[in-house]
Amino acid sequence: MADSTIPQTFDPWDPAFLADPYPAYAELRERGRVLHYAPTDQWLVPHHADVSALLRDRRLGRTYRHRFTHEDFGRTAPPAEHEPFHTLNDHGMLDLEPPDHTRIRRLVSKAFTPRTVERLQPYVRDLAGELVDRLVANGGGDLLADVAEPLPVAVIAEMLGIPESDRGPLRPWSADICGMYELNPSEETAGRAVRASVEFSAYLRELIAARRADPGDDLISGLIAAHDEGDRLTEQEMISTCVLLLNAGHEATVNATVNGWWALFRNPAQLAALRADHSLVPTAVEELMRYDTPLQLFERWVLDDIEIDGTVVPRGAEVALLFGSANHDPAVFAAPGELDLARADNPHISFSAGIHYCIGAPLARIELAASMTALLERAPGLTLAADPDRKPNFVIRGLAGLPVKV
Length: 406
Description:
It is a single chain. The protein is of the alpha+beta class. Helices cover 49% and strands 9% of the residues. The protein has helices spanning 15-19, 22-31, 48-55, 83-90, 100-111, 114-119, 121-137, 143-148, 150-160, 170-178, 187-213, 219-225, 235-266, 268-276, 281-291, 323-326, 361-378, and strands at residues 35-37, 42-45, 60-61, 140-142, 227-228, 231-232, 297-302, 306-308, 311-313, 318-322, 383-384, 403-405. The strands form four sheets. The chain has a five-stranded mixed sheet with strand order 1-2-10-7-3, sandwiched between helices. Strands 4-12-11 form a three-stranded antiparallel sheet. Strands 5-6 form a two-stranded antiparallel sheet. The longest helix is centred in the middle third of the chain and has 32 residues, at 235-266.
């Protein structure tokens, strides 16, 4: 299919598109089920049914290295100077396929249990309350910097057992590493990601050594102890797992929080309904995740030829599964462009699907509900102080800040 089928409105580097990509997605869905996009050499998949099916299709993978060399797959190996980033990234379960993915996820699940997450609930609730109280005492501030960001950072750090005095660099490291997940990252972005990968890995290596000598009641100690028929995580797998949990916990939850409140401020009738009935919080969390998805795009490599609607996407190609478009597909969601906090039937795919379904989804839901409830209860008059600026990112899409007053 020729690139002429891509609507001009689809431009991931255009601020107008970043501000509201959903009209362009509607055009993409009308143009077809799979469309080649030359600037990134990717095949765009905009429909919910296709995205959902391909997330579960084993002919696609987050990596191809378990089956092919770079040369066999028609790809060029990453530059040697990027190696620290790729070592860190390529040993995390998000970028692995079976059998390595199966083994690591099983071992991580032994430490990252529903009981572990449930035990954190009072801590999350109390911390959310403290952060909102501070915002209220100051008469307002930046909802991102004052509430949305510190909550998941502190929660993941608490889970991992990272001392409070060490938590300052965590968010900058996370942001620098996640810059590499954007489309066509620059060399400057790569340099920051490499530096953060080296520093973060060195820090975690020391912390893991300390926990080996003196285990505690934390996730790192649990990862060290986790074993299955004599199988254990390697040190690199533990480091990569900790970074993955931290990065995913930061980026998704932070952006879901501010994207969500920005949507609420733009939909005052829905915000009023939520303020009148706090029992809407669970469905509101799901609807806000659907309405303005924090992760807009998820990439997969084509390991064996696939055919979509008569178009063969060949082995060696890369598909871009458009979560934001899928979550606004009228074939699945009634009036998808409308925010409906009471939406009952809501099969959004913001947490992915298949073997790579987000392991932290239960924790993210607890955090989002806790911060929303604390703001509704303790800052009932919360209003927008000024229109927010948007970060120039597409894949992990969010705001640079959200100025509010109480």
